[in-house]
Amino acid sequence: MKKLGTVIRYECTTSFKYIWVFYACVFAAISVISVIVFISTGDRDKIGTNGLEINSMIYVGILGVFGFKEDFKMLIQNGFTRKYIYLAALSLFAFTSAIMAAVDTIVGNGLHAVAKGYFSIFGGLYGYEHSVFINWLWLFLAYMLVCCLLYLAILLINRIGKAASIYLGIGLGLTFVLIIPVVFKFVLPKAFTEAVVEFAIKAIGFAGGNTINFLYPIMFLLLVAGIFSLGSYLIIRRTELKV
Asked: pTM here?
């Protein structure tokens, strides 16, 4: 357990400063763009942005992808088991997601209070009359889902190779973009497709009428992130780093 604590502490402390570098870059870019727009148009109403959490999702996705090879190689060479490496990666994802969800919740609610035209992803979906904790939890689980999905993807690519991964990616893309919509529209019974749509709406949290039940999206995000996480564990148990 001491070795596990060491590797978790190493992962979290080394990644902590990069979170603030990321936010500094994001807000610096927004500031520069705002100044350029204002100088060009002279109209403050044209200055604005929405959904800053998308930037955070991209960041945690990159964390899931590029955090694998170097960390895996270094930790394996230092005698850490694959189980410990997996738990350290999961701890890193949770640590980073928790901090970024907190920052994005505060920033999103603050910007909306100052500039009513700003909408965060959570606020755009559910409104701003809900608990700050629910906002943070929803974002935390969404970021965890992205981390676990991309971590699973990079482990799978490492496992089956780049060529097979490309074919698999093309196959999945065609399946989701072409095959599934056609099957839903022309093959499956209408009652079944309506049930799927109703389930998807409930999974987002809209329980009917104007009511929102946050238990559904929280459980859904937790379940999907858990499935991706379990898949990652099953693959990493036999993973060998391919250079």
From this structure: 0.87
